[in-house]
């Protein structure tokens, strides 16, 4: 584990979490299953850094071959990868969760075009397609062979006004646009009925979302 963090902290690696990992003043391993980090400053988001996928622990002797032979402690093991083709994984018998994973083999097919992916799903060639654009969700709702499952997410799109440029440097202009633009209609048209207007990056269904009344104030 310590070797992984040293690698991430190395500027030559170019890791996007290097700034966070750079807060490590000292790292110790008091026993086989424990790592103790001492940071240079108090940092409440440190658990999020350690939980990010960029901080995934890899064998110290397998760093140089990560791009061609990835190795880790996850539920599946790398089998093969064909660029722009597919990624094949097999069940990891040494996974720490007993009796998991349930599936022996998983193949990810790389299909850039969603129309092709949806056609393969309806023909039974694929078991799962995720991240469908909203327009494809509507097309599959009445499919006799495919099932669409939707979940609310925090993904959001924004039309921003640069407050340094006229006329958006005038607060009343920005306020007027906010009042006049039919955000619900735009969300409905742009996302084919699969989105909702919001006043912040926090999704409207979140229990701590700032309601519009509060935003107006």
Would you mind describing this structure in some detail?
With 217 residues, the protein is an alpha+beta fold. The protein folds into three domains: 2-63, Dipeptide-binding Protein, domain 1; 76-140, D-Maltodextrin-Binding Protein, domain 2, CATH 3.40.190; 171-216, no CATH class. The chain contains eight helices and five strands; from the N terminus they run H-H-E-E-H-E-E-E-H-H-H-H-H. The protein has helices spanning 2-9, 18-21, 46-51, 114-122, 134-140, 171-180, 183-190, 212-216; strands at residues 24-31, 34-39, 76-82, 86-91, 105-109. Strand 1 and strand 2 (34-39) form a beta hairpin. It is flat and about 60 Å long. Mean pLDDT is 86; it is low at 212-217.
């Amino acid at each position: 584990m310590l070797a992984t963090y040293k690698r991430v902290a190395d500027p030559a690696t170019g890791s996007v979490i290097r700034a966070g990992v750079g807060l490590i003043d000292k790292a110790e391993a008091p026993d086989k299953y424990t790592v103790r980090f001492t940071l240079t400053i108090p940092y409440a988001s440190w658990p999020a850094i350690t939980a990010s996928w960029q901080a995934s622990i890899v064998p110290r002797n397998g760093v140089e071959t990560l791009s061609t032979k990835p190795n880790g402690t996850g539920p599946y093991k790398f089998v093969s990868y064909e660029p722009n083709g597919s990624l094949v994984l097999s069940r990891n018998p040494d996974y720490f969760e007993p009796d998991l994973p349930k599936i022996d083999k998983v193949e990810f097919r790389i299909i850039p075009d969603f129309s092709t992916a949806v056609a393969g799903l309806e023909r039974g060639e694929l078991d799962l397609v995720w991240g469908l654009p909203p327009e494809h969700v509507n097309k599959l709702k009445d499919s006799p062979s495919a099932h669409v499952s939707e979940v609310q997410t925090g993904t959001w799109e924004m039309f921003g006004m640069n407050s340094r440029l006229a006329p958006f440097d005038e607060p009343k202009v920005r306020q007027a646009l906010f009042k006049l633009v039919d955000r619900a209609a735009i969300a409905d048209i742009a996302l084919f009925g699969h989105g909702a207007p919001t006043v912040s990056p926090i999704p409207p269904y979140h229990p701590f979302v700032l309601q519009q009344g509060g935003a107006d104030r």
